Amino acid sequence: MIGLGTLINVAGIAAGGLGGLLFGKKMEERYQRTLMSGAGICVLFLGIEGVMEEMLVIRQGELAGRGTMMLILSFFIGSLLGEWMNLEAAMERFGEWLKRITNSSGDARFVDGFVTASLTVCIGAMAVVGAIKDGISGDYTILAAKALLDLIIILVMTVSLGKGCIFSAVPVALFQGTITLLARLIEPFMTAQALSNLSLTGSVLIFCVGMNLIWGKMIKVANLLPAIFLAVAFAFVP
Questions:
Q1: Which residue from 150, 98, 100, 99 is spatially nearest to 121, judged by alpha carbons?
Q2: How far, CA to CA in Å, does 68 sit from each of 64, 202, 228, 236?
Q3: In this structure, are residues 121 and 168 in contact, taking their beta carbons and an 8 Å threshold?
Q4: Which residues pair with 63 in a beta bridge?
Q5: CB atoms within 10 A of CB 194
Q6: Range of 65's domain?
Q7: Residue 156 pairs with which residues in a beta bridge?
Q8: Where is the signal peptide (predicted)?
Q9: Counting beta carbons within 10 angstroms of the beta carbon of residue 214, is it exposed (0 to 12), middle (13 to 18) or buried (19 or more)?
C-alpha cells in the first residue's frame, strides 16, 4: 500500500506523544527540565554524527574534509531566504492555530513544543528517501525504522515540552505524504551527491535544534530550512 510508511510514522509519533504525556504528568518539574537537557544532548550528538559521517572521508590514508564550501553557501543564501520568508513565524502561526482548535490555550509550551518537535522529526535524509521508496515501490521499511526513532524522540520531548510535540505528526504527514505522491518526479534528482548534501545540511539543522533544547531558543532553525533545498541544488553544479 502506497503511503503506508507515512501512516506508520504518524502513528509512531502519536504513540510517543501519548506516552510522554502519561509519564510527564507523574514527574516533577525538575525531572522534566533534566530530561529536556538530556534530550537536547542526544539531539546534538545525532546532528554531530550525521555531519561527521558526511564531511569526513579517508583519502590516501589521511582524514580529510569535504562539502565545506557547499555548506557555507547553502546556509549563507538559505538563511537570507528563510529570514525574508520568515518561516519560523509561519510555523509559530500554524502552531498557534493548532493550539486554538485543540483547546490548548492554557499550555504555554504548546507552540514551542510543536515547532521544536516538528523540526526534529521532519529534517533528514530518512524522511526523503523513505518517502520516495514508499511512493515508488511501496517499500516502507525506512519509514518504519524512522517511526521507531521518532516515537522515542517525541516521547522524551513531550515529557518536557508538553502535548504540542504530538502535533509534529501533522507536518510529517504533509511533508512525507507529498514526497510519496511526487516520488517518481523527485527520484531522478535524489542522486548520491544530492542525498549526501541533504544529509549534511539536515544534520547541521538537527544540531541547532539540540542547542535550542539545552540553552533556550538561540537559533531560528525554521529560517534556515531553505539551506536544505539549496544543498540539493548544489549537487548539480559542475
A1: 150
A2: 11, 14, 14, 16
A3: yes
A4: 58
A5: 19
A6: 4-235
A7: none
A8: none
A9: middle
pTM to 2 decimal places: 0.85
> Which helix (DSSP H) or strand (DSSP E) does residue 204 occupy?
helix 192-215
Distance CA 131, CA 148 (A): 15
Q: What is the pLDDT along the chain (238 residues), one digit of tens a residue?
A: 778 999 999 999 999 999 988 887 777 778 777 878 888 898 899 889 889 988 887 777 777 778 899 999 999 999 999 999 999 999 999 999 999 999 888 888 899 999 999 998 988 778 888 899 889 888 889 899 999 989 988 998 898 888 999 999 999 999 999 999 998 888 888 898 998 999 899 899 999 988 988 888 889 999 999 999 999 999 998 7
Backbone angles phi, psi at 103, to 5 degrees: 55, 45
* Contact status, residue 112 vs residue 96, Cβ threshold 8 Å: no
**Residue 50 contacts residue 199 (beta carbons within 8 Å):** yes
57 has which bridge partners? 64
What is the C-alpha separation between 49 and 57, in angstroms, rounded?
13
Q: How far apart are CA 102 and CA 160, in angstroms?
A: 19
In whole angstroms, give the CA distance from residue 68 to residue 165. Answer: 33
| Number of structural domains found in the chain | 1
Which triple of cell numbers denotes residue 43? Answer: 539531539
* Residue 84 CB-half CA count within 13 A: 7
